[in-house]
Specification:
This is THAP-type domain-containing protein. The chain is mainly alpha-helical. It is built from 9 helices and 2 strands. Strands 1-2 form a two-stranded antiparallel ribbon.
């Protein structure tokens, strides 16, 4: 029984030459390029089955693809008389928008989430899920979309992703730690468990040696923030770090630096002041 063209050509001429697909083991890239041109017609067949059972007729190749024996050269690619295919972009894009809307309703109603950055989702049309498959089924799309969500929410985002306006609403319930008002007192017996604020430890640490050590520890904290929070934000770097080494308290950090290099983090005066206050408060509470 003669082979039929994989494109569905209705060739009645028995003399039409039929060409096999490239060997998927020897030429995998060339083989998959042929399969991609056919779209998703053979997604249920293995590469070996396509290679043995499917053929493409000679009319889809130009003369430049043939040698004098009418055999195809190694770079031959079907380019002529290809059937027009319409990728399901519009239909599936609507489904994607409906899926995003359903996801937002679930997150907002069930989990109380009040903001969702859509830019953290893949913006490609749905047919791009599943690599070369332009006609994915619902199961493959569901798996790809789940993996995409996990990756986008667990990996670093773009350089400006941490510069979004944030009103710190999630921390407003903790503001009573910093203010005297709104302190909730419990009905407990009077005990002498008050925390004594040691002002001597807190305010008597302004010597140069301790300041240098404080800045060195602050450098380590900034380094961790640079890796996990700041990432590539240039505005944050300019705000927190010192460009020129003019602060004498950073001399201990500079002594650890390689010669004529500036690879370490140097906190500026404002960050140094904030960090010293945090250190003094922590020291006064625990010692």
């Amino acid at each position: 029984m003669p082979h039929r063209c994989a494109f569905g050509c209705k060739n009645t001429n028995s003399g039409v030459v039929m060409h096999m697909f490239p060997n998927p083991k020897r030429f995998p890239e060339h083989f998959h390029a042929w399969v991609n041109i056919l779209g998703g017609k053979f997604e249920r067949l293995s590469d070996h089955e396509i290679y043995l059972r499917k053929r493409i007729c000679d009319i889809h190749f130009t003369d430049a693809h043939r040698n004098r024996y009418k055999r195809l050269n190694a770079l031959a690619m079907p380019t002529l008389y290809l059937p027009e295919t319409i990728a399901p972009s519009i239909t599936n894009l609507i489904k994607t928008l409906e899926g995003i809307e359903s996801l937002w309703k679930l997150l907002s109603r069930k989990y109380g989430i009040d903001a969702m950055l859509k830019k953290n989702f893949n913006q490609d049309p749905i047919e791009n899920f599943g690599v070369r498959n332009i006609a994915p089924n619902t199961v493959s799309f569901e798996g790809a979309f789940k993996a995409l969500m996990i990756n986008n929410y667990s990996e670093p985002h773009s350089s400006g992703a941490n510069c979004e306006e944030d009103h710190n609403e999630c921390l407003q319930s903790l503001d009573f730690f910093l203010k005297d008002k709104n302190i909730i007192t419990l009905d407990i017996p009077d005990t002498n468990d008050t925390i004594h604020f040691n002002s001597e430890i807190c305010f008597d640490q302004s010597n140069e040696i301790n300041a240098g050590q404080t800045n060195y520890v602050c450098r380590w904290v900034l380094k961790r923030c640079l890796k996990f929070i700041i990432k590539g934000c240039q505005h944050c770097k300019q705000t927190l770090f010192e460009n020129d080494i003019s602060n004498d308290n950073n001399s201990y950090i500079y002594a650890k630096e390689y010669m004529n290099k500036k690879w370490l983090c140097y906190p500026n005066k404002e960050v140094e002041s904030y960090f010293k206050e945090i250190q003094d408060m922590t020291t006064s509470f625990f010692f």
